[in-house]
Amino acid sequence: MLMIHFIPKFTKAIPSSLVAIVVMTIIAVVLGSYGIHLQNVQDFAGMEIVGGLPEFHIPQVPLNLETLSIITPYAVIGGLVGLTEAVLTLQVLDEMTNTRGRTNKEIIAQGLANTVNGFFGGTGGDAMIGQSIINIKSGGRHRLSGIVAASALMFFIMFGSGFINAIPLAGLVGVMFMVVVGTFKWESLRYKGKVPAQDILVVIVVSVITIFADLATAVIAGVIVSALIFAWEKGKVIYANVEETNVGEKTYKINGTLFFGSVLNFKELFDVDNDPDKVILDLKYAKVSDYSAVESISSITKRYEDAGKTFKIVRLSEDCKRMFHNANAFTSVVIDEAEAEIIEYPYV
C-alpha cells in the first residue's frame, strides 16, 4: 500500500501497482527460501494455474425447460450484477477523467463478448471497478489502454502462470485496498445534515445488503426503497387554493400530482358537509397520474352527490381526459369541457 501511494510521487512511467506486486512476490520468494511461506494465488485457488489457449466447444447440456429453469435465476442475477457494475464503473471513470462514456455501447459490447466467451469455456465478465481504476491510476486514458491491459493479462496467464502462482495474496490485498481508498467518496462522510436523510438511508441499505447478500439484490432493494421514499415525499406535496363566490359556488384549484401516494392527502382537502351546493374541481395545475387518483376523484364525486350537491371537473389536460375516458366504466365523475375555455381561474 505504501509503494502504491508514494511511487507515483516520484515517477508515473511504471505503474505503482505492478511495482508493488513484483516487489512483494520477490519478498515472498526470499522469505520462502528461509522457510517462511506467504499464502499465494496457488494456495488460494487450491490448484496450480496452468496457461493455455481456450478451445471452442458447444455446451453439452440438454436443451429443455428444466435446464432453462436452472440457468435463468443465475443468468438474471449475473446480468444485473454485470450491467450495474459496468454502468457504475463508467460513471466513476467519467468523473475521474472528465469525459462522457457511452453506456449503451458498453452494455452491448459486454453482452456480445460474454456470449462469445461462453463458447470458449470462460465465465461471464464486466467492467470491473478495481481493474479499471488501476488502469486509470496507471495513466491509461484511451481505448488502447483497455486492450493492452486485457492482452497483458492473457499473456500473463498463458506464458507467466508460474509467476501468477507465486504472487502473494498480501500484495493483491494491498492493491485492492488502495483501489477502495481511491474509489470511496470520502466527502460523503460529511454529508450528514447536508443531504436528505432518505438518501443516506438508501446508501446504508444498499451497502449492508451488498455485504451480506450480493450486488444485484442490493441494487433491486435500493431501487424499491428509493421509489417508496419518492412516492411518500411526492404524496405530501399537494395542496388546494380555494375560492368561494357569493353565488354559492366553491372552487378547489389543485396543485400537485395525484397518484396512489397522494390520494389520502387529496381527500382531506375537501369539506363535503360545509361546502355550498356547487363545487368545482380545477385541475389545470394538477396531474392525474394513475387510476388510484381517478378512483379517489370518483369517490369524492359520489360523496358530494350523496349530499345533494353538484361536483364537476374543469380544465383537465388531454392526458387526464383520456385517462378518465378510459375509466368511464367504473367512475362517476362529471367533466365540464364546455366551460373549460370560458371560465378564467387566476392561478394564485
Could you please describe the fold and organization of this structure?
The structure is a single chain. 56% of the residues lie in helices and 9% in strands. By secondary structure, it is of the alpha/beta class. Helix 2 (16-33) runs antiparallel to helix 9 (169-183), helix 4 runs parallel beside helix 6 and helix 10 (197-212) runs antiparallel to helix 11. The two termini are 62 Å apart. The model is unreliable at 340-348 (pLDDT under 50).
Radius of gyration: 31 Å
- Strand percentage, roughly? 5-15%
Overall mean confidence score, pLDDT = 83
Helical proportion, percent range: 55-70%
Number of strands: 5
Structural class: alpha/beta
Q: How many angstroms separate the termini? A: 62 Å
Largest sheet: 5 strands, mixed
Number of DSSP helical runs: 14
